[in-house]
Amino acid sequence: MLSLCNFIHVRPRCALALTALIVLSATSRVALAQPASRARAPQQTLPQRAAPSELDRRPQYGPIGPQITVKSIEISGNKSVREGRVRSYLQTRVDRTFDPEVLQQDVRRLTASGLFRDVRTYTREVDGGIAITYEVLERPLIQYIKIIGNETYADEFLAEKSGLKAGDALNIYNTGAAAAKIQDQYNKKGYRKARVTVLEGDKVGDQGVVFSVHEGPKVRIWDVDFAGNEVVTSGRLKTQIKSKPSPIKIGLFKGTFDPAQLDEDLEKLTAYYRRLGYFHARVGREIQYSDDGQ
Fold first, then answer.
1. Closest CA relative to residue 113, chosen from 161, 78, 70
2. β-pairing, 224-227 with 2-8?
3. Cβ pair 199, 172 in contact under 8 A
4. Burial of 140: CB neighbours in 10 Å, binned 0-12, 13-18, 19+
5. In CATH, which superfamily holds the domain spanning 145-214?
6. Could you tell me which of 19, 62, 146, 165 has the fewest CB atoms within 10 Å of its CB?
């Protein structure tokens, strides 16, 4: 049973006072006495500029040191990830000035890609500049995705909802998020007690992902009732919402309970009272479940 209650609260108005503060400043005048005569300044002799020494012929330094040119970029450690994909995350370029900050940004982008567990960089001096090596330690790739315990939805459908696919990098954080997506699919379709757990894919050394699904009973709407509505009839309020029981109250014909839809219905009822002039009306809810949880 679903009970929605309306409450009206009147809030006092608040006065807002604005005070302007004006600050005036006075400028004092200072009288300067003019000298009777101005003495002629002695003529200065500019020093002679010395010829450039060996120190003046040193290479010019920028804000981070000498301007060093990147002569080559190498990628090592990649086995499954193509070199071109690794290079797509890099902003450091050959024949451009080396910038340590850009190098660190490259490392952060490679790490954030989720493809690698570790990224290291090495530099060495070569003729005309430096050579840079990016060494990556790959995460294992997902070899397979399996789902057990599901009866309502097909394996392919739930695998698609998870957002994972074979060939992706195996990341324990992504695996947990994928399980939550599958569970959300069940919850919004009325399986309030559905639970999805990760059996494989959350430990070091795993090669694939296995989800275990406990669907539980499907929660359906048996009745919708209203309390506290004095101005609008319950029949009229029911026309404003979509959470309704089926006209045939037997077995599978009962309306499916969708928590997200219920939240939307509460917003619609609140907006409906606003249009009637009840700007402080409040709509609440009370959900009652049967003994079997359905």
1. 78
2. parallel
3. no
4. middle
5. membrane protein fhac (3.10.20.310)
6. 19
Domain 220-287 classified CATH 3.10.20?
yes
CA distance 141 to 165: 10
Instruction: Kindly report, residue by residue over 230-278, the tens digit of the pLDDT.
Output: 999 999 999 999 888 866 655 554 577 888 889 999 999 999 999 999 9
Report in angstroms the alpha-carbon separations of 86 from 96, 114, 138: 19, 12, 11
Same fold, 67-138 and 220-287: yes
How far apart are the C-alpha atoms of 92 and 104, rounded to whole Å? Answer: 10
Question: Would you say domain 67-138 falls under CATH 2.170.130.10?
Answer: no
pLDDT value of residue 259: 82
- Token readout for 142 is 């997902």
- How many whole angstroms separate alpha carbon 55 and alpha carbon 33? 51
User: Does residue 238 sit in helix, strand or coil?
Assistant: helix
Strand ranges in 149-230 using DSSP code E only, listed in sequence order: 195-200, 209-214, 220-221, 224-227
Could you tell me which residue, 31 or 183, shows the higher pLDDT? 183
Domain residue limits, the chain: 67-138, 145-214, 220-287
Statement: the pTM of the whole predicted model exceeds 0.90: no
Alpha carbon separation from 236 to 1, 19, 230, 256, 281 (Å, rounded): 18, 50, 12, 21, 17
Please give the distance of CA 14 from its chain centroid, rounded to a whole number.
38
Instruction: Find the range with the poorest average confidence among 29-38, 128-137, 148-157, 204-213.
Output: 29-38
How many CB atoms neighbour CB 226 within 10 A? Answer: 20
Q: According to the model, what pLDDT value does residue 180 have?
A: 97
